Structures are given as C-alpha cells and as structure tokens.
Amino acid sequence: MNQLALVVDGPWLVHSTFRALRHRLDTLKARTRLPAAVWGRLARADQAWRPIVAAICWEGPGEPLRRQLMPSYKAHRPRVTAIRAPDRLPFESFVAPVGLEADDAIAALTVSAVAAGWCVRIMAADKDLAALVGDRVDMCAGPGQPVVDRAAVERRWGVSPALLPWLLAVMGDRSDGVPGVPGCGRVRALRIVRDGRQQVYHQAVAAHEVIRLRSEAVRVPGWWPKP
User: Fold this and answer.
1) Model pTM?
2) Whole-angstrom Cα distance, residue 221 to residue 157?
3) Most buried residue, 62, 92, 201, 227, by most Cβ within 10 Å?
4) How far is residue 227 from each of residues 3, 14, 159, measured CA to CA in Å?
5) How high is the pLDDT of residue 133?
C-alpha cells in the first residue's frame, strides 16, 4: 500500500502476545518478558510494512460505556492500560476518551486518515474492526499473516464490512458476551441481514448499539499530516 498509515490495536497486541508467551513460559516469566515481546512485534511490523505514520490505540479510562449498556460485554477480559512505545519506534500512543475502547479510537483514526488521503492498515485480528475495511483500508495481524480486505470479509462472513456489526448483533458474539437474537444461528442471521430485517428485532438493535464502532465520539483534529 502506498502512503501507508498504520493503526495498531494496543489491547489486542498485549493480550495476543501474552497468550503466545504463556504457551512456553510460566505466568511470571511471561509477564516479565511481555513489554519486550510487544515492542518486538511492532518493530517487525514497522520494518516489513514501512508505514510513514503510525499510531497505537488504547482504551479510555473509567467504566466502559458498552458494559453499562450490556453488563455481559467482555466481562471476562482484563483491562489493558496504555504502554508508551520506545523512542526508537515511530508509534504515537492514542488513548480513547473516557468510557470508550481502543476500537473506537482506531475507527476515528482510520476514518480521519482516509479523509486526509492515506491508505490505512489496521494491525489487529478483531472481527469488530473488519467493519472498517474498504478500498483504502485493510487489516493484518502481523508480517507474514493474511491481509484482510473487503473481499476477504465478504468471503468469511457473507456480508459487506458495513453490515458485519448487524450480522454479529443478530447472531450474537459469544467471545464478547453479546447474546444476539434467541434462536438465530448464522444461517438465519445472514438471511435476516441480507433482507434488511435486522431492526425488527429489539435484541439485535440493543446488541448493535453495543457492537457498533463510535468513531464520531473520538476527536482527532490534526492527527494525520497530508501524505
């Protein structure tokens, strides 16, 4: 991608790195080595992709808004606070506003970067962020991993990126504690979303309000220079 802006999901990076370390180390050693392993992954991404600008996003302070709307939402996941990247790495930290997630900051930075003329790569493996994929936005978990573009989202989920939050709202997302519409598996959920009937179900509307990315709630004036 030319004129690349890289946006990194900080909490995902920390969680996934820790899980990888725990496969071969005990908990104490994994925690000790975690910062160096996280920055090592960022350094490899920087070397492989050569972004011109890069940001790493973190969740905001305070009680998460989504958990106020749905107490089961990510109730099993520990929170990750912002970690400053070493000066040798060209990554600026961006912390979401109070109550919002790193996903919301990623959405806001992605939208503003595209508007400023950049192509964006999101370093993450979160299906919620696949809703941002488009003509100038893709997603990848790291160098050597598959790149997720619009066609890949449609092959994997059967809907366009824009409709993915509605699909997850109807069918539910067990990994995030989102129940969805009772009795709706993936096949029925696909039929409902493709027919445009998702807003008929109040459970889906409530779940969509939890799942949807809140780019409009995060101010990013002047964050990206012109490419």
Assistant:
1) 0.94
2) 33
3) 201
4) 6, 29, 32
5) 98
The pLDDT score that the predictor gives to residue 181 is 94
CA distances from residue 190 to 21, 41, 169, 180, 202 in whole angstroms, order as listed: 37, 36, 11, 13, 17
Confidence band of 79 (pLDDT split at 50, 70, 90): confident
Which two structure tokens, joined as six digits, stand for 28?
């104490």
Residue 214 has pLDDT above 70, yes or no: yes
Tell me the DSSP string of 115-129: HHT-EEEEE---GGG
Min mean pLDDT across 3-7, 14-18, 32-36, 88-92 is at: 88-92
pLDDT for the residue numbered 1: 58
Cβ burial, residue 2 (10 Å; 0-12/13-18/19+)? exposed
Q: Tokens at residue 49, please?
A: 């992709």
Is residue 41's pLDDT more than 90?
A: yes
Looking at residue 186, its amino acid is R
Per residue in 80-90, is it b (16+ CB within 10 Å) or e — as a string? Answer: bebbebeeeee
* Helical segments of the chain, H only: 10-22, 27-49, 65-69, 102-116, 150-157, 164-171, 186-194, 202-211
Closest CA relative to residue 72, chosen from 176, 182, 208, 202 = 176
- Cα-trace Rg, the chain: 18
Retrieve residue 70's tokens. 């749905």
| Identity of the amino acid at 195 | D
